[in-house]
## 1
Amino acid sequence: MIVKIVALTDQGLILAKQIKNFVENSEVLFKPKPFIQTVQNEFKQGHRLILICATGIAVRTLAPVLKDKYQDPAVLVLDEQGEFVIPLLSGHEGGANEFAQKIADKLKGKLVQTTAKSYTKPIYTIGLGCERDCPISYVQTLISEALKSTNLEMSQIQSINSIDIKADEQAFMSLSMLLNKPFNTFDVQTLSKVEDQLSIKSEYVFNTVGVYGVAESAALCGASKSTENEAELVLNKIKNAKATVSIAKSYL
C-alpha cells in the first residue's frame, strides 16, 4: 500500500519526514505543482494520503474526485506540529481510523475521530492453515508478509486461529507461545457460518477438511469471538508451499 505525505510549509516538511521514517512505502511530496492535480491524481490511483495542511484545503481539493467510502482510499489531515490527526475519508472501510490511530500514537498526538464510537477499537486476528507437520518457518514467513502488506504490527493482533483438527499442530502451538498470543480452533460447523465471506472457495480444501477455506474462515471466527460482533477480512489468504495465512478484524 503506497502512502503519499503532502506538505505545504517548511514546518510541515519536517513533520512529513518524521512520518516517513515509520510509515512503510511512503513518499514525501513537498509543495507539489500543480497542487490540486497532483493530489487528485494520487488519490485516483488509490494511494493513501497524509495531508499536512488545513482541513478546508483537503476538502476542496478532493471533493471533485470522491466516489464512495468503499472505493476511496484513506485520507488523513494533520496540523504542522502533528498535535492532531484527523481521519478525513474512508474511516471504516478504507482503514483511515486505524491508520490515524497508529500515526497519532507514533507522534504522541491526539486522534480526532468523528465516526461512530463503536468502531473506535478494531480487533485483528490471524487465521492459519498448513500441511500436517509444517515447519514453523513457513508460517512465520507468511505472517511477516501479511503484517507488512496490511501495515499492522504483531502487537495489534489479538489471537491466532485455525480449524480444530489443527489443535495439535506443533507449528501453531509453538507460535502461540513464541508470540504470546492465544491459539483458538473452531469446528467445521462454526467455520461454515462465514462461508459467504470467503474470497475464494476451494473444493480441494472442502473435500479434505469440510470447509472451503481454513485460514480466512478461522480469522473471521477468531475476530467475531473476540468482539461478539461481525468480522470482515482485512487480508485475503496468502500462501506458500506449505501454509496459508489471512487476517480479519472486528470492532469492540
## 2
Amino acid sequence: MQKTIPIEYGKYYHIYNRGINGCNIFDKKDNYSYFLELYEKYIPVIANTFAYCLMPNHFHFLIQIKEEKGIEHIPRQPLTLPVVNNPGSGLYRKAVKNPGSGLMKKYKPSNQFSHLFNAYSQAYNKQNNRHGSLFEKPFKRKHVNSEYDLKKLMFYIHNNPVGHGFMNNHVDYEWSSYHSLISDKQTYLEKKQVFEWFDNIDNFIFYHRQQHEIKEIEKYIFD
C-alpha cells in the first residue's frame, strides 16, 4: 500500500479523489456546481488553486498550500457556560464566558479538505437517499516540484475529459478551470501566476491546443 504523503506548507500538489469503489460522485449539473461552491468556501483560505477538472466519478486539482504565515486565523467566539442556582434544578442564574475558548487558531489544510468532502457527501447522500462514505480515503496527493511539470499537469487536468473519452476537445467540457482562466470574470483561480508560467494567455491557449507526452509526468498521475 502506497504511503500517504503529508500536506506541507508552501508546496505544490496534484490533488485527486474518486468515488468509493469507483462510484459516481457527480450525477447532475447541480452536483458539479455545488461541489465548486463548497470548494470556494473551504479551500482558498489554505491554498492557491491553479487548475481543476471534475469528472463523473473523480476530480483533479492543482494547488499550492499557502505558507503557514499566510493562512488566516479562525475567529472563535468565547463559549458561554450556564451557572445554575441548584445543580439538580435546571434553573440558571447567569452565564459566564470561558476565557480560554476565545483563543484564535489557524485554518488547518487537512481539516479544510475534510470539511469539503464531508459537506458534499452529506448533501449528495441526502439527495440520493444513500448512506455511508462517498469518497475514497485518504484523498490522494502528489508533490510537484518544477514549473515544467506544473505546466504539463495543467494540460493533463484540462485534457482529462478527452483522455477518458467524454469529449473530443477540452474546450467543449464545462467542468474544468480552462474557461474560467481565459475569461475576464473574477475568480479565486491564480490566473496571474498561471499565465506567468506560460508567459501570457495566448501561449497558455496555444499550449493546450498541442499534444503533449504524458509519460514525463507519470509520477504525478494516479492509477
## 3
Amino acid sequence: MGADPRVVLVTGGNRGIGLAIARAFADAGDKVAVTSRSGEVDGLYTVACDVTDQGAVEAAFGQVEADLGPVEVLVANAGITADQLLLSMKEEAFVRVLDTNLVGTYRVVRRATSKMVRARKGRIVLISSVVAATGSPGQSNYAASKAGLVGFARSLARELGGRNVTVNVVSPGFVATDMTARLPEARRSEILSSVPLGRMADPGEVAAAVRWLASDEAAYVTGAVLPVDGGLGMGH
C-alpha cells in the first residue's frame, strides 16, 4: 500500500463481499466510493449506479471524479443470480445475468481504464466465483458470466500491462453472506462437505485478497486468478 490514499471504487459495495472490500480499503485510509442501487451506505461515499445502464455508469464515475478524484483502484463486484435448471431457464434470465455480471463489468472497467492509462497506473480487480471453474447445477448463466471475467481480465492484463495497470481476479468460494444464508440447510451442509477447510469464508477474508492485489506488494502480479475458496475448487 502506498503512502498516499487512493481513490477506490467498489461496485455493488452496499452489502456482503462488496461492503467488506470497501470497508477494508477505507480502514487502510483510502478514499472509497461504493455503487448501490438501494440507498446510502453508512460511513461510505455512495453513488447510485446500475451497471446495466451505460448512462448511469458515466454519471457515477463523473460524480466520483468530481468529488474524490480519478479512480485509481476499481473493484468490479456487482453481480446477480437467477438460478434455474437449463431446461426451465428463460432466455431473459440468462441474458440478464450476463448483462449485469459480465457486460456490466466491461462497462465500468472501460470507463475506469481511460484515466488509468493516461496516469500510467491503476489496479483492477474483478470478483468471479469458484463456480466459474467447477460449475453448479442451476447456475449455467452465473457460471458462464463469472468464467467470462477470467478471459476478460487476462486479455486486459496483456493490453494494459505496458501502462502499469494490473488486472486480476479473485474467485471466492462459499462465503457467509445474505445470499448463502438463504440456502436450505441441506444444501449448505452438502457444499460444506466438499470444502477441505470445512467452513464458509468470512467476507473479510475475500477483502484481504482484493486489498493485497491492489497493493504495492502485488505490483508484479497481473492476469492472475486468486482463489479464496477453502480448497473447494482445488485442481481447477
## 4
Amino acid sequence: MLAWEQARLDEVVADMFGFHALQLGLPELDGLRANRMPHRWLALDTAYQGWQPGAAGAPLGVRCDFESLPFASNSLDLVVLPHALELARDPHDTLREVERVLVPEGKVVIIGFNPMSSWGVSHRMGGLGVRSARVLPQGEFIGYWRLRDWLRLLDLEVEAGRFGCWRPMVRTEAWWNRLQWMESAGERWWPVLGAVYVVVAVKRVRGMRLVGKIRKTRLPTAAAPAVVTQSGQARAPYQQDVNG
C-alpha cells in the first residue's frame, strides 16, 4: 500500500510549481521528494514519537498541532496530507487550517482510507477480533464523497481523484501475490471499492482581480445633434428645408 501511495504522490506533485510546500504527518512517505519547490517542511504532531531528521535535501521537520499550523495565511503553494485527517484530533479544523495557509490557486493532496472497501469493513470489525484490522490506524475513515463535500464548503475545488489497492487483507505474502489480478480488475470494474484514495484540490478565491495590462478601447463619439434656427420661426432639430 505504501508503495502504491508513494508512486501516486510522485506523479501528482512532480508538476506542481511554487516556492513553499508542506507535508502533514506520516514520515514513512516522502510526499515531496518528486517536487522541486525550494522550501519544504514536514510537520509532525507534538505527540508523534520515533522520527529522526532526514538527510541533506530532505524537508525540514516541524512539530506542531495540525489545527494550528505555524505558517502565515496565504503562504504555502502545496500541502500534502497522507492519512493526516484520519489521525487528526479534529479533521474539520485541520482542513480549515490547510485552506488558511494555502495561497490562492494553491493545491492540496489528500490520501485516505476508503470506508466502503474491504479494508474499511475490516476496520469497522476491529472490535470483533478481526486480526487484519490491527494494522490499520484507529482513527475515523472519511469517505471519498464526504471529503469532497468538506472541500467544497472551503472553496477547495477537486481537480482529480483516484482509488487503489483492491486486494483484501490476507495473512501471507503468497496469497497476496496470488490476488494480484484483483488490482487490474478492480481498477476497471469496481474502482470506488479501492482501499485507499488520492484527492487533488485547488484553492479558489472568489472575487479575485486580474493583475496586468488591460487594453482600453475607446468607443467613437457620436456627433451631437445640431439645432437649426432662423429668424421669424424656429424649426425643430434635423428639420430639412423642402424648398431648397
